[in-house]
Amino acid sequence: MEKEMCQSYKKNDLVTVTIEDIGTGGEGIGKVNGFTLFVKDAVVGDVVEARITLAKKQYAYARMEKLLKASPYRVEPRCPHHRRCGGCQIQALDYERQLVYKQQKVRNNLIRIGGFDSDCVDRVMEPIVGMEDPYRYRNKALYPVGTDREGHVVTGFYAGRTHTIVPSTECYLGAEVNKQILEIIVAHMEKYHVSAYDETTGRGLVRHILIRKGFNTGEIMVCLVINKEKGKEGIPQQAQLLSALSQIKGMTSVSVSINSEKTNVIMGKEIHILWGRGEIRDVIHVRDMGKEGYPYTGQELTFSISPLSFYQVNPIQTEKLYSLALEYADLTGREVLWDLYCGIGTISLFLAGKARQVCGVELIPQAIEDARANAERNGIDNAFFYVGKAEEVLPAFYAEKQGEDQLCRPDVMVVDPPRKGCDPLCLETMLQMRPDRIVYVSCDSATLARDLRILCDGGYELRRVRAVDQFGHTVHVEVASCLQRKD
Ligand code: SAH
Given ligand 1 and candidates 312, 326, 362, 479, which is best to mutate, with the most ligand atoms within 8 Å of its CB? Predict the structure, then answer.
């Protein structure tokens, strides 16, 4: 039998291809003569003419040049910048199909990376929790500030994989008020000749604008990230700027963060409050995830959030995620437990309401300050917190307190690490501590799958997995999972 031809292509070749799948970066995947193409901006089901941008032996990257036949899953994106912006990779894909993609992504990672068999995965995975309205969901926005060719101050977003600012004050994922805030700041900078930071020279004052809004309280925080030397004197004609910003309904806190480093890290560690309080508050309600529409249970907590602290970006979906974590923890009131990577203590404090004792661990000191204040504000006295790396605090605690403290043999451990997942030392200590249950909340299903495999090889069984879409129109997805000790 004749072998299937595997024709090679080279840069700039034009190819007609039918898109059959979606890649990890949201790109369309299609095959021509056994050759795989990853096509930016193509939607699954499309037939497109694509131009090759980078060719390898067996596969190539390409860009959609012409849409020949639109997929039934293709929709009109709300944002005119969606192709250039690095933020939304799949805004042209119908939202219901986005959910199918994310459910499959989690399933595939559990099978391929985690090595779980497909029957097991299909048994434990529940349907993804989608959003009712996948726009205007973000409570946080970070805008870079720069200067355009004509010397005007601009703010907007970075074009995908670059640091070129595409001017735009309107992002359909963010709060509507962001536009008004950005316009006030840009107008002020123009009027008083306040310079924007220039990454190449390291000169100029204003680097980024952080805006946060408590969706349930309406409280707004603005934090300008500025370059130190000039930042000492604050922002020129600061009083005028503060007067304009403070007129905005809900404005609660205006601050500056000093960052003089030549770095991609956005926030500087030093914060100075210019107007109002140093934090905003938000309320999170617990929901009943077993009932249709996920109604509120009546349990709720109020949280303080300062500029440097992590806070989940999608408040509505966060309530669902936390409610699942709480359900998976299955507490009776007698348990002793850990909440690793606890941020401002959100999950910890919900757990504390149903447990004997909770201990949170978090790297960022300001977040732990928030966590302690949050415990006090909500009248919770059975939660305490450590600042440090989970992979250092946990083994040190275990080595020192073994046999003395019940936290060395906890009932439940909750972990919610950043994208890179848990450190091996953290996982190893968790296995030594032998909790009955582990609730693993993750924003990266690949590292989740890797870590779940380690925990299952160490004596646990995967019981429940449920994805929650916190990041509509992007390829990211949050997952809650639950493991049970086998003996
Ligand atoms: N559970 C919290 C925070 C989750 S985000 C919430 O839902 O709000 C992950 C958190 O882990 C961040 O606050 C980050 O600062 C923290 N973090 C990152 N690396 C860490 C480490 N090695 N040890 C402890 N915390 C860490």
Answer: 362
Q: What residues are annotated to the active site?
A: 443
Q: Long-range contacts made by residues 406-410, C-beta under 8 angstroms, separation at least 24? A: 406/336, 406/357, 407/336, 407/338, 407/357, 407/359, 408/433, 409/433, 409/434, 409/435, 410/335, 410/336, 410/337, 410/338, 410/435
The pLDDT, as a whole number, for residue 2 is 42
Neighbours of 262 (CB within 10 A): 9
pLDDT for the residue numbered 6: 55
Q: What pLDDT is stored for residue 159 in this prediction?
A: 85
Residue 345 CB neighbours (<10 A): 31
Q: CB-based contacts of 454: which residues, under 8 Å, 6+ apart?
A: 424, 427
Give the residue, by CA position, lying nearest to ligand 1 atom 21.
389
Assess whether the C-beta atom of 303 lies below 6 angstroms from ligand 1.
Answer: no
Query: Which residue has a Cα nearest atom 11 of ligand 1?
Result: 341
* Residue 166 in tokens: 């595409």
pLDDT in tens, 187-225: 999 999 999 999 999 999 999 999 999 999 999 999 999
Q: Which of 265, 286, 310 gets mutated to test ligand 1 (max ligand atoms within 8 A of its CB)?
A: 310
Average pLDDT over residues 308-312: 93
Mean pLDDT across 309-317: 95
C-beta separation of 306 from 279 below 8 A: yes
Q: Is the CB of 468 under 6 A from ligand 1?
A: no
Q: How far apart are CA 189 and CA 310, in angstroms?
A: 28
Which of 108, 97, 50, 52 is closest to 71 using CA atoms?
97
* This model's pTM is above 0.85: yes
In this prediction, residues 87-91 reach a mean pLDDT of 93
What gap in Å lies between CA 449 and CA 308, rounded to an integer? 29
Please tell me the predicted confidence (pLDDT) of residue 259: 94
Instruction: Please say whether the beta carbons of 434 and 93 come within 8 A.
Output: no
> What letter does residue 407 receive in the DSSP assignment?
G
Look at residue 231 in the predicted model and tell me its pLDDT: 54
CB 380 within 8 A of CB 339: no
Instruction: Confirm or reject: Cβ of 362 under 6 Å from ligand 1.
Output: yes
Pairing of strands 280-287, 296-305: antiparallel
The two structure tokens encoding residue 227? 């370059």
Helices (H), 10-148: 95-112, 118-124
Between 284 and 85, the higher pLDDT residue: 284
When pLDDT is averaged across residues 19-30 and rounded to a whole number, the result is 96
Q: Is 367 in the pocket of ligand 1 (CB under 6 A)?
A: yes
Q: Which of 350, 59, 147 is nearest to 360 (CA)?
A: 350
